[in-house]
Design goal:
367 residues; alpha/beta
Length: 367
């Protein structure tokens, strides 16, 4: 059976994601009716002691047969003896509207998560052995409401991520560490940096933290996250973040939610600039032409594979911290969210550059 790539299943997820943005046209109440679970959050027990010592609690880990994070496009190969250890937190892959958190054995959510790892975590397999945990992620509808249940669901998911990270640290040994996530995964990663990295000895082992697809306030969040923003491409021990939009970009829905929240410092995020790292150059607030893009993952017509196309997508940090990919961005059709939001493709638009960026930062790392 043909193994479907990220973009097929991403279509299903993006249809739901697009609905999140469509509420501006159809009304908040309608969105809540159809996308937000109506019941109470089921109180989840904490992970059993040493739960993440079990191989079946991981979607990717170095000893996992058929590890989806080892996928590479033609012309690339994963490292045979990787130097670093990578902890990757996958984005939302659970779309159920009947319950707030995904069961660990949900086949659809796990299958989608594997596909995301092929298109995202795979960028790091030239330098790192990749661990990516299963976790009882919050369902997509949790991001459409201010109900207390939504935060409870996210807190339950985050508790799993913390348990997985603690086990990862034990198994990674003394190797340098790369942290990465996307969307919901990046939200949990940002919290993890505050709770497990900031002011801790492990901070000295972090090569880089890729908090991608989730906004990070330069003033309300970063001071508590334990690492500085990456100031250049040859810097280690720093944070990268970006959110991709084509032109004309309409990020108001993102900014509205961002501005209504408080940061890790307790200060409001309203009006604050967001961290925007240009993934092509590795510099904040930077601009790069399409010619400098080493490779974008583009799906084949059959949607059973993807090819890497160089020189297709530019990148420029604009406004309060949005990454603009220009007016001639790849046509992913219905997979692009309203407002020209390329959220699902934050990694794949710059797959080869992310790979090179991680290699460069590992080379700059000093214990």
């Amino acid at each position: 059976m043909a193994r479907k790539f990220l973009y097929v299943v991403a279509g299903l997820i993006v249809l739901a994601l697009a609905a999140a943005f469509a509420y501006r046209f159809y009304g908040v109440q309608l969105m809540r009716q159809f996308m937000v679970p109506a019941g109470k959050v089921v109180a989840l027990p904490p992970p059993a002691p040493n739960a993440y010592a079990r191989a079946d609690m991981w979607i990717a880990r170095p000893d996992r047969p058929g590890n989806p994070a080892l996928w590479v496009p033609e012309g690339y190969k994963p490292a045979a003896n990787p130097t670093a250890a990578v902890f990757f937190i996958h984005p939302t892959s659970f779309l159920d509207t009947k319950t707030w958190n995904a069961p660990l054995d949900n086949a659809d959510a796990n299958s989608r998560a594997e596909l995301f790892l092929r298109g995202q975590a795979s960028a790091f397999n030239s330098i790192g052995a990749i661990w990516a945990p299963r976790y009882r992620q919050a369902t997509f509808g949790a991001f459409l409401t201010s109900k207390a249940q939504a935060q409870q669901a996210l807190d339950f998911a985050y508790r799993d991520v913390l348990a997985a990270f603690d086990q990862f640290v034990k198994e990674a040994g003394d190797r340098p560490i790369i942290l990465a996530g996307h969307s919901q995964g990046a939200l949990h990663l940002a919290r993890l940096l505050v709770d497990r990295v900031a002011d801790k000895p492990i901070a000295r082992r972090i090569v880089a933290a890729y908090v991608v697809g989730w906004p990070v306030s330069l003033t309300a969040d970063l001071p508590r996250m334990g690492l500085p923003p990456c100031a250049g491409p040859d810097q280690a021990g720093c944070i990268l973040s970006w959110q991709s939009f084509g032109e004309p970009a309409e990020p108001s829905l993102l900014l509205d939610a961002f501005d209504a929240s408080a940061g890790f410092t307790g200060k409001p995020r309203a009006g604050t600039p967001m961290l925007c790292t240009n993934p092509i150059t590795g510099k904040p607030g930077d601009e790069a032409p399409a010619e400098a893009n080493l490779g974008t993952l583009i799906p084949e017509a059959s949607f059973t594979a993807a090819r890497l196309v160089a020189g297709r997508v530019p990148a420029k940090c604009v406004g309060r911290g949005i990454l603009s990919i220009g007016a001639a961005a790849p046509d992913f059709g219905q997979y692009v969210l309203p407002g020209n939001n390329y959220h699902v493709f934050d990694y794949s638009l710059f797959w080869a550059n992310v790979r090179k960026d991680a290699e460069r930062r590992l080379a700059a790392y000093r214990p």
